Amino acid sequence: MQVLWDMRKTFRCAVLTGSSSDITNVAKEVVNLFADGGQGFQNTVLLLVNDDHILENLQDSIMMEIAEQRIVTRMPVVIFFSCVRKNAVLQSDHVIIEAALSDTEEKKFNEKKEELRRRFGSKCEQFHGFNILQTNFSQDYVKQVCKVIRPVPRAKRPKRIQLVGFLSLLNAYVPGSYLLENQCLDLFKHKDYRMKPFSHLIITFQQGTEKRVCMAHSMIAQCCTELMAEAGVTRSDTARNFLTHLCRDEVPPFLLGFVKDMLTKREMKIKENPINSTEITEEPERFSRLILDIQKKEGETVSASVLKVASKKFDKNPYFPQALARFYYIELKDYKPAELWAKRAKQRDPQNSFIADTLGQVHKNHLKNKKSDVKPREILQLATKAIDAFKDEEGLAENEQGTDMKEDGETNVSRIFNSRGQFGYLQVCNLVHDQLVSQNETWKRVLTKAVPMGSVLELLGDNQLFEFKDLINSLRDEVAKKCDFFDKYLSYSKPDMKKDDPSYLYEDIAECYRKYVRNSPPEHVKEKGADFIQKLEQNVVDTSAGPLSCLDGEYSESELKEITTQWEEISLHKDSVTALVNYIFAHVMLMNRRAVLPHECKSLTAFRKKMPLSTDESPESHMLALLLDWPTNDEGKCSAVSQLIKCMRLSYKQSYEKDLRSRHLCPLFFIGKAQGLNRIVHRKTLEGLFERNNTIQDWSNNWSSEKIFKDRMVQDHLLKLDGMVRNYRLLATVGGTVIQVDANMRNSLWKHRQVSFYLGFTIRGPVAFGIHTKTAEREISETESELSPCEDTTTEPAVRMKFGASCSKMDSSDLTKLQPEVDDIHTYSLQSEAGQYECSVSALRWVCKEKVSFTYQFRSWEEHMKRPLCKDYMQAGPLLDISVTSGNIEELHLPHWICIGE
Asked: Which parts of the chain are coiled coil (predicted)?
């Protein structure tokens, strides 16, 4: 807050408070705050946000709102000031504010202490928040202050001691929490509510119409909680009494939120890879800090008892019974009550797939911890329960739609597509296979459908197992289906730009595929070509994503050649666009490995004959069509490409948008400098080039920061395209036409400018990477005025720039001087109505008959003096790079300068 106060005259400062569920409305308020006062009075908003999960969505919504309001600006609309409280922080590019003063800060605090002592005398000894800072967060100071609560009676504790305990527990485990003053008075029954000798430990402050009460500092709250626990007033006792005395009748939403965080919010912790000590990741704790502390200091059953009280007290909230069910099956290994509470959680929110997941996890863990001598019948009974629960979860996940978080006060449904049900199913199948096969090898043939179950019942030793026939028969096909889903899910996307999926996800999926699918073809595959499909299944490529995922796997060149040969045979025997596409991509895959090919790709002509593709074809097919037909500067295929982009995005929406809606789409291919299929460059090829010059790799960071595109070898491999940024959209300029493409780094779109970039392709369509402002040599030229609009794309009005010399002089008395705005990269921005004007900085003069906006920058002469146009000239003044962003300039006067625009 101090930063906001210090910057209040520079920016329009604001804090995002309350629910962040309505991102669209928040974006509108931010843009309105920026634009308040109209043109010429706009100013950047500095927005304090304490939830880093909403930043990407909020950024996109703000950009859409700016475009909708047609705001053109050369300054940032908003700066996100993201401050998130964490107990464990990975080393990153974030600024970490720790509880420690610098020498300079310590000196200033000491000076302030003397000033306060002169003004307030001994009273300043009770300014605990300040004193804790001034003593550099001294634990000794905190312990000295908190001694006042000793001794603490275990029985018949005065109400004031109870209130200190409640506030301490709440503030120690939920930073920023509070109680209302009237809630505290209700505790005293409005009788004797004097808090001495503890009154200096508690503060009351006004927030709107409410009077709020909390401990003076979170360190004091933590110390009081610890001292009371040492005196026998345990955390669990305080928590239960808190729920009993302060959560009676109807609990206000703010207090329910605090209790929910205290009992169910899982903090992030740092986890080190036991195999690779340099690999460190973040993962959530098993339970909330309070529950973990109670478990450590008081025992597991006591932790469960606190969650049980909360589950009964808040009888409509699903999160407390969910946490209780998790505690029973994870810590206590008691599966009957775990199942009971998981079902109660599900009853309270029957449409929430994430709540439903808990029941499946209970049964899965029960199965996992069964003794090795358990009978097959028991294994299959438990597996049936787990599979039914996960299939129910999968069905609920299919129905959870929406781009924003949905909130009704108690239940949050994530915008994330929940794939846990499908993954849980595969984990159960792994357990079933391991436990059954370990008892009898015959199960291996039964589970892969190599033999019918009914024909080997005697070998299995139990005729009653036949009742599980339907379950057993469904496993192999369901495993193949779910592995196909994850093949695309993991090949095409990742959780976000800076985070990868955990390695166990890949391992468990691959293991399940090997156990159930690898050694047996599906029964329906009996036609010619079945042998090839069988071999492809063994390489996990019998899907539309198959060839595209091969480069992410560890396949040898010989294996890839075999896959390519197999797809070639299939494409010859099946009249299928997918088969053609897979063969061509397999061929491209080999070319990216620099393999020696026996012949050229034979299916290109056949594929081109099937164009234009219908929107019913897969996004992979449309991507291949785009890669083949993307125009170079001497090709005029803009209208066809625009239609292909439109079809690909529609196909993506139909095929993958629901499943990948919250995930970051990974680039699959890039346009290179070569010709034909050789110009299609796979992501892994770029990583290989980058790897040669860099020993330590952090691929998530290399891609998210676009560091990889700064490598010279990568740059030499890729084709650089030109374009322009207009209204938060990137328009590629190819062959005299404009094509709208997405940008990988959305923060590259805030300023109107001419740019260059590399073109990549995700499964949704073309995306620009490595966006950079073009050099002055290639700045706005006559080419821009000749850009013709493409079908179904948005274009900017083009203006032909005419250059010429003039000997006439302008009368300075007729000019209106204007002061330009200047941004952090020294771009000067000017706006004017019709008239004659002069810039007060550069003496640049212009005449316009309508409202006009333009920018300019001072450039270096060095690169231009080598050009033939400048050969006979010497430098005689500054060089200006001028860009008109809206309107028209009739005359532009540059005294003693020359114009070298083309």
From this structure: none
Q: What is the sign, positive or negative, of the torsion defined by CA atoms of 856, 859, 861, 864?
A: negative
Rounded CA separation 633/635 (Å): 6
On whether both 72 and 9 belong to a single domain, the answer is: yes
Phi, psi of 806 (to 5 degrees): -145, 140
Instruction: Looking at the structure, tell me whether residues 660 and 741 fall in a common domain.
Output: yes
* Digit-coded pLDDT (tens) for 39-82: 778 899 999 988 777 777 888 888 888 878 878 777 889 999 88
Domain residue limits at 864 = 812-893
What CA–CA distance (Å, rounded) separates 514 from 537? 10
What does the pLDDT read at residue 785? 36
In a domain? residue 576: yes
Contacts of 576 (CB under 8 A, 6+ apart): 570
Please give the tally of structural domains in the chain: 6
Percent of the chain with pLDDT over 90: 45
Mean pLDDT of the chain: 83
Neighbours of 207 (CB within 10 A): 9
Does 630 score more than 50 pLDDT?
yes
- Give me the long-range contacts of 816-822 (CB less than 8 A, separation at least 24): 821/74, 821/75
Over residues 177-223, the pLDDT tens digits come to 999 998 988 887 755 567 778 889 999 999 889 999 999 999 999 99
- The rounded distance, in Å, linking the Cα atoms of 69 and 28 is 10
| Structural domain contains residue 398 | yes
**Pairing assessment for the beta strands 720-726 and 753-762 based on DSSP bridges:** antiparallel
Name the nearest CA neighbour of 216 among 149, 316, 291, 270: 149
Element (H, E) at 366: helix 353-368
Instruction: In whole angstroms, give the CA distance from residue 627 to residue 326.
Output: 48
- Tell me what pLDDT residue 637 has: 60
Whether residue 222 lies inside any domain: the answer is: no
Lowest mean pLDDT among 372-376, 402-406, 478-482: 402-406
684 and 577 housed in the same domain = no
Q: What is the pLDDT of residues 405-427, one digit of tens each?
A: 444 434 444 578 999 999 999 99
For residue 119, give Cα distances in angstroms to 128, 133, 490, 892: 16, 19, 64, 63
Q: Distance of CA 861 to CAs 739, 875, 880, Å?
A: 32, 8, 10
Strand order in the sheet with 45-49: 12-15, 45-49, 78-82
CA distance 66 to 30: 10
Q: Do the domain assignments include residue 629?
A: no
Same domain, 364 and 468: yes
Choice between 687 and 381, residue whose per-residue pLDDT is larger: 381
Per the CB < 8 A criterion, the answer to whether 320 and 337 are in contact is: no
Query: What is the Cα–Cα distance from 36 to 43, expressed in whole angstroms?
Result: 8
Structure confidence at residue 636 (pLDDT): 53
Least confident of 128-137, 206-215, 295-304, 554-563: 554-563
Q: Are residues 570 and 542 part of one domain?
A: yes
Which 8-state DSSP code applies to residue 696?
A: S
Q: Which of 520, 551, 586 is the last residue before a domain boundary?
A: 520
Residue 782 has pLDDT above 80, yes or no: no
641 and 781 co-located in one domain:
yes
Residue 568 is predicted with a pLDDT of 77
Mean pLDDT, rounded, for 158-175: 92
Cβ–Cβ under 8 Å, residues 899 and 891 = no
Task: Specify whether 486 is located in the same domain as 387.
Answer: yes
148 touches 207 (CB < 8 A): no
CB 419 within 8 A of CB 397: yes
Q: What is the DSSP letter of 495?
A: S
DSSP code at position 775 = P
pLDDT digits (tens, 9 = 90+) for 310-332: 999 999 999 999 999 999 999 99
E strands of 455-589, at which residues? 493-494
Question: In the structure encoding, which two tokens stand for residue 740, read together?
Answer: 């709208």
- Residues 166, 237: Cα–Cα separation, whole Å: 10
